[in-house]
TrEMBL record:
Entry-linked SUPFAM superfamilies: Periplasmic binding protein-like II (SSF53850)
UniProt name for this protein: ABC-type phosphate transport system substrate-binding protein
Signal peptide start and end residues: 1-19
Keyword terms of this UniProt record: Signal
Amino acid sequence: MRSVIAGLTLALAAVSANADIVVIVNPKNPAAALSADQVSAIYLGTATTFPDGSGVALADQPEAAGIRGDFYQKATGRSAAQVKATWARITFTGKGTPPKELKSDADVKAFVAGDAKAIGYIDSSAVDGSVKVALKL
């Protein structure tokens, strides 16, 4: 029985590790799609606006969530710790504010759905009509 449970646990971990991550924006955002480079620049603080020049409100997943590390690796090529260090420097110099850390996909989705200038990332299975997918990683 233990081997069956262990096998199921490993299978579930493999499925979640291969889950698609999507970058989402508010449906009112004029950006039909964002490139990986644009998302990277936004989440590394080197771009402070969307391509149309409108401001950006960043949403982040919890530090302990696996999706956070996967997102930063796929979107920026950096680890979550490296991105955190980048934001510490940006914040220290007064040049920006780090992404708002929320508790779950549902919270990120609600944040983005409620703010026309918001951007976040969630598991693709959590997408619904309240948000628009701007990039699939």
